[in-house]
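Hi all, long-time lurker, first post. I run a small reading group and we've been trying to get comfortable going from sequence to structure in the token notation. Rather than ask abstract questions, I figured I'd post a concrete chain and ask someone more experienced to write out its structure so we can walk through it together at our next meeting. Sequence below, copied exactly:
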Amino acid sequence: KAYSQSKLANVLFVRELARRLEGTEVIVNAVHPGVIDTEIGRNMEEAFGGAYACCRCFTLCIICCMGKSVREGAQTTIHCAVDEQIEGSGLYFSDCAPKEPARQARDDEAA
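-- Answer (accepted) --
Happy to help. Here is the structure in token form:
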């Protein structure tokens, strides 16, 4: 739950920051790199023991089937940083394209 809340907070923060920077030449956007095959979980078994070991196989299957390499995962961030053709600020990008975020992330009052 904490992970999804932090991701929602990132998108809401970008929306509010874009609103505050309106009229300037600064563009801010949120990016979702996707499921990335990294070593982020390399110490999870030490921290969580058997509970992590049980779901590790499932996690690895998801990463193998749906995951991206680190290089592939970086492409959306790089795209947003260097593409001068991006129009708009406060957008949500995934796979190098603007996407509509979840309903909760479009709540300007929450932002």
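A couple of things your group might point at:
The first strand starts at residue 30 and ends at 32.
The radius of gyration is 17 Å.
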